[in-house]
Structures are given as structure tokens and as C-alpha cells.
Amino acid sequence: MSWDANYGSTWLLGGTRRDIGNPGPPAPLHRNPTSLIPCVGGRRLALVTKDFDHCPVLLTESLQHLNLQPGALVIDGTLGGGGHAEAILERTSPDGVVVGIDHDPEARRAARERLIRYGDRLQTVPSSFRHLDKVLEELGIESVDGVLLDLGVSSYQLDESSRGFRFGGTDADETPLDMRMDPEAKLAAADLLKAASAQQLQDWFQNYGELPGSRRLAKAIVDTRKEAPILTTADLLRVIQEAGIGRGRKHNPATLVFQALRIAVNDELGALRDGLDAAIRVLRPGGRLVVIAYHSLEDRIVKHTLRAAAKGCKCPPATPVCICGGTITMRVITRRPIQPEDEEVKANPRARSGKLRAFERTEAAA
Description:
Residues 5-38 and 40-50 have low confidence and may be disordered. This protein has helices at 59-66, 83-91, 105-114, 132-139, 155-159, 189-195, 198-209, 214-227, 233-242, 254-266, 268-282, 296-311, 342-347; strands at residues 9-12, 16-19, 73-76, 97-101, 122-125, 144-150, 283-293, 330-332, 355-361. The longest helix is centred in the C-terminal third of the chain and has 16 residues, at 296-311. It contains 13 helices and 9 strands. A 7-stranded mixed sheet has the order 5-4-3-6-7-9-8, with helices on both faces. It has a two-stranded antiparallel sheet with strand order 1-2. By secondary structure, the chain is an alpha/beta fold. Helix 7 crosses helix 10 (254-266).
């Protein structure tokens, strides 16, 4: 595993930091974290780059439930453009540290540029949050005070046609079916459409998109690719339309199709399960995990995984006495998911489906 920059600190087991050199003066602490949101009330922060403008979702709520103190060590497992990381660095001044994980080099570059004033308090790592425990192991860090996972696709990835996540633009004929969050990953969406069997396609559309007509669309894709490859978003949209998928429905069925393919390309649900398990392992007792999900498949996994950790026992309900030896490792903080207020949704419509859940690490056995 490689790191994006030379570190200005050495890390000791347990998350203790020994500084090397002078990282410079601490960034000023904002009293109101909402002021950091670049999209609220018409106020927008200066862009880090020409393309990457990050509008963090449920920012104030994230900070509240992470319950951070000055000097905290936090993993931002979905660094993106650094919006959440910026607020965390402010809240943990003067010497708190964020380990920002993202496998998108454009995201890491944007975050480093945006947060350059924090010096080595931000460490960026090219990886996936599913490996966050291994990231910390290589850094020599045993435990952390908080973990944030903001799931889904960033606005930059959605808006940048070359990444292949969107389908509604006028350039659909030139937009490749890519959808890789890690540009160096081997298989893009077009590769899956070329090689997957009809049953595999049907399973993806059913399980990841909950798409009516999944079997019909899978057959249409297999029949179409015999004549010509499906390489662009326009190619796939034509197959969807000609197969009569979603006819008469209010919402565009392509949304579910593209969601399903994106999840399959990036193994998003598998990564989420691995990442949640890793987060539980690396949190110190009293540390917090905050997860923001954007569709029911993600939210269901978060809810069930962490509730099971809060229950401890994995025995069947009919078992009169626990025989599994399971222990409680997490405590549920949010009994119901927290959703954005109307003001935030108005300023950032893509926030509307966000659901935040928070959990706290218990002692080793409870």
C-alpha cells in the first residue's frame, strides 16, 4: 500500500502521535459547523479545483454524533473532496488528525488542495474503507476515536461524464459505461455487460436495483450484445427503452439499472459489510461510528450489522440460553435514522435520500 505524501509525524500503537518538525499554526476554530457547508443559504466556498466542489451531507449531525474532542484521531473512510474532513479538523483543533481514505485520485487531490492549511493533520490514503483496519495497521495505529462513512457517489463523479455514472446528459452517445470509483480497477460496467450471463444480469438488477422487469432486461442485453457491443450510456438507454422497462412508471427506470450496475462494478455492498466489521475492530471503547446511506440496500446492511453488534448473541431466537458466546461490541445511538432538514435539501437536492445512523463502541465485553 502506498501513501500520498511523506508524513510529518510518527505513529505509535494506540493512536499516539509524536510530532516531527513544526506543522504550523492551527487552523481557526469555527464555532458553528454549519458555516462550513458550502451550499447552505446560497453561500458557497471557493472551489478547490475547477471541477471538484464538495457539499457535505448532514454535516452538523455528523459532527454532533461523532462527539469529537480536541486531539481526536478520526478515519474519514470516504474522503471525497474533503468537506466532512474539513469540519472534523476544525472540531478537533489544535492537534486532531484525520486519516482520509479514498481510492479516487481526483478526490484525494482535491481534498489535499482544499485542506492544505492543516498540514500533516490530514493524511490521505489511496485505498477503500473496506480495508481501513489494514490501513491503520500499516500506519502503526491500534485504535481511533471515530469513523465516518459517507456512502454513495460524489457529486463530482456524477457530474463528470467521463466517469460514466450519469445517463441524463446530452452527451450520452459519448459517455462510456465505466462507473468505477477506482479508475485503476480492472472491470468497468461495459465489461460486465459484455461478459455476464443472463442470470447474473438478472440477479444484479433484482438484488441491487429492485427493478421490475429484470429478467426481460437481462435477456435484451444478451440479445443486443450479439449484434453490437454496449459501450456507452446511450447504448444501454436504448436497450432499456426497447425492452419496455419501466413503461408507464413515474420514475426513470434507468436510475435503478445504473444503480445496480454501479454496485456490481464496485462491489459496494460487500465493501460496506467489510468496512463496518473493520470499523468495529478499530474503534476504541467510547469511539463513535457514523454512517450516511443513500438507498435502502445500504441502510439495511448498516442497521442489521450494527444492531447485531449491539445485541451480541447470535443464537436463534428459540434458544433459551446463549451458547454462541457472543459479546456486545456496539451501542446504538440513533434509534431511527436522521434525515436532512428541508433547508439542506433545498440547497443540495442530492442530500434528500441521506440517512444517518450512529453507534458507539462498548468495552471489549459488555
